[in-house]
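Let's practice the habit of predicting before peeking. Look at the sequence and jot down your guess about where helices and strands might fall. Then scroll down.
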Amino acid sequence: MSTPLLGQVDYSTATLTGRILDPQELLVTGASVIVSNPSTGWSRVVQTGVDGVYRVPLLPPDTYKLQVQATGFAAAIATVSVSVGQIVNYDVHLKLGSKSETVEVKEETPLVQVEQTQQSNTISRRQIAELPNLSHLFTDSVFTLPGVSNSDAPRSQVAGFSGFVSSGFSVGGGSGRHNLVTIDGGENEMGAGALRNAHVPADSVQEFQVNRSSFAAEFGFTAGTAVNVVTRSGSNQWHGSAHAFFGDQHTNATNYFALKSTNKAFEQNLATGFDLSGPLVKDKLFLFTAFEFIKVDTPQFRSYATSTAAQGVRSNAAQQNYLKQLTGSGDPVLREIAGQLQFLLDPANFPNTANLLVPNTGAFNDWKKYHNLVTRIDYQPTANDTITGRFSFMEDDGSRMDLLDASNSPDDATLGYQRDYTLLGAWNHIFTPRFLNQLRVQVVPSEPIDAPVVSPHTAYLRLAGLGQFGGEHYQPFSALERRFQFEDSVVLSQGKHTFKFGASYRPFTYWVRDELWFGGEFQFLDGAIPIVGGLVPPTSPAYLPLVNFNVSHGLPPSGDPATYLSALETFDAGIPVTFRQAFGNPQVSNWEHYFGVYAQDSWKISRGLTVDFGGRVDLYAAPSPVPRQTYFSPRLGFAWSPSGDGKTVIRGGGGIFVAPIPFFIDYVVNLLGENKGHINQVATNLSATDQRVLSLWTRLTGCNPEQPWLCAKQPPFPQLQAADLNALGITIGPGQPGRVVSDLMQPYKNNYSIQASLSVQRQLGSNMAVELAYQMSHGLHIQVPLDTNAKEIGVIDPFVGPIYTQVNPDLVQLMSYSSIGTSIYHGLMASLSRRFTRGLQFQINYTFSKTIDDNIDFNNDFMPFRPTRMSLERSLSVFDIKHNFVANAVYATPFKPGGNLLSHLLADLTISPILFLRSGIPFTVRVPGMQNGTLGESLWARPWHAGRNTGIGPNFFSLDMRVSKSFFLNREAGRRIDLLVQGTNILNHTNFSAVNDSFPANPTPFHVGSQVVNLLDGPYSFHGIRGLDASQPLGFKAAFDPRQVQFGLKVNF
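Done guessing? Here is the structure:
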């Protein structure tokens, strides 16, 4: 009889398998194999079949004792460790002798998993515990792996990201929004592509596996990666620890953008916690619990009031030259006009400039508090049953300045509060050696989320490249979710085949209140408003003298584009370009239903060749107008060991991977849709025939249009009321002219990816392995917001491109959520790893990759500037990291405490470095002042001949380190005190995170620093320029953290 094979990886367990051989390498049948866990008293006995193979499935990650007994042979004993998702092949060679004799097997567990068909890595408990981790996020270790990058890094560079964060890491060039992260098999998802609980205490995590590509059909609900986190469990001995880490402005270096004239800004990182584990009933019932409190205070720096933009004409050489020409013209009229313009172009003459900028200038505390509890109970009533229950609690509270673009002001920031309760239960049962079952239920009974704004019920002001001020347009936001997960998997084995099939049902309900645009939004642009015709309107007596002067000097009637007003100058003058506001009912509630079934077969064709194939069918049912979708996803993978010695394996695979539609798609469409009974939006653009936006601004601010420096109100400005709009003939409601509507572009599809991978891995010696890998991921039906009410009029401006008008003139904008986005990723990876032996463990990874796409994220700020020409959006992705090198190590010194003084000092010392080196983040040459007849797309306007992401930000380099020294009180019992110090970027390398990518709408060549910029014809391959002001194009406007240091104390008992 052939012993069954458990094929693909599992969410939270491992499989131990292998052959029992005699001294002549012949198979031993009928041998008794006893696998036991000394720490819990658990054991299981299996028999080898005619093929001499034993197999023990559903093992929690741990270290096990393996005993083999067979007639005519001496008993063999070995120690084997297994990790989550592993299929560990461990052969045992018996020696002739009696059963009373015992032979200890010294062979190491194989490094190469010859039956693993997918590309994956496991983060061990040692790495979690020893590598530097100042954030105390359990996912930080993911960034040490090949093919993984930080999907949050572009947030500082890229304007327009919403408060809906992603999982935080990108695999296969994705946005991080479509990854699957499970904890003990339970989903850790909030419905928007983000981790529901990102701050699981690191001390509660045993290990986790990152499946990067081409994994089996049992893993669904993802178009990216599948990460399986396993929490720690108790044992027959009571153990515990308590820790405290602390760092502040005295231990940390100064941020590059810190104001030099002030004292060092307050900064603090405090983390305290404990864990406790032990038996409630010996050998049967075990407890593990961990709690952690984290408080982080991070200074965020803004320099609006001292920026170049705040100086107006005093820092604008083109404007100064123009005023000098007027003054020196000899015409007293022009001389007088020049004096008036000198006053109007100087923001210092406008009190509201100071009222807007000064309160938002300086150092601001970006504070956060996290409370996290994990309690797990394991019950093993029999050798064939394991029952697990886990309760977790999470409470996050704090500001969210870090989620915004570096130009967002502190009064534009939001606060955030989230609480999560999770209950999980799992039952693994072995009916027979051929028939296994895994049942899992998870309930999230309540998850309130609240995100109020710092400046509630105030207008949102966009000042192009300078910054955004007032109440954020997509806040305040409140939500309540209830999530459920019911799933069961069955394993049946027959001969060389192992069939696994199962089903998962994941419904959730939500209630949302989102006051989208309730505060109103005014937009001011750089280079969109000329002095002549804008600041000086055609009704002014100064208009004609200036036009005549310009024409006589060979200039356009409106003057040199280099003299056009900056966004701040238009703010002072009271000339916003666009206005948008919403009214109505901001609440909506609904259910969503995800259901998937899968079947797969792991076929061990020969000892050196394993093939996994299968498929899954997923049903996604979301509220109307999102259509119900059913998808079939085939999966195929193979693992071939050509040498037959288990030290070389060639892996390959591919398949289709489908992600759920994020719930914000259906709730936003239902809130903002036509005739939905919720929110009604209106908007208007400034034009020669429609000046209502100027009147609305006057009503908002109380400023005198003739003397705009005299204003009755100061920022932040309270939002306008419906009566203010009605007074200007703007009617709010369905079917009214000037409305903005959102809908869903049909056919709307789930985002899915087509993945393929190929790799070769070779064990070097007994403790090292090298792997070369290729990975491809092709994303399809990615969410893209699109203005479907825009149509080209047949005119193409050489600078702006196609000019648009509205299909339906009563609609200012029809913002359609489409699923037409695509992406493609190709990555080559090289990895060298050494498992922990003789005090040293390391992994060195290099990834060379390229990501191309035509989208960034789902929200309206990323609407393409030219909605009818999506082919022009295809370019290098903001998530493209061309070169990514990372190395990490854990080194325990070999010295013993009983030697000389030096030996005593160096004993029980662990040093753990991480080295990060990667390419810069791409950025787009944006010209928000450019207008082509659309509304809302100008944030990502760019010159007609410029592609997306033609600029490249600076490279990133950081050396992180952790050093710990243990003082044992009782070495055998494990009682000790650890003194620790850990730091990130310990060499204090300045890593700029954002380049100012906002340019004025000037088609004529102009200088930025010493560089000539030609936005009309290019080139557009820009880099940031050190030394420029943050408000200037190509100036650096934000930096990643400088050196951060924490000191820690940990007591273990």
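How did you do? Residues 1-9 have pLDDT under 50 and may be disordered.
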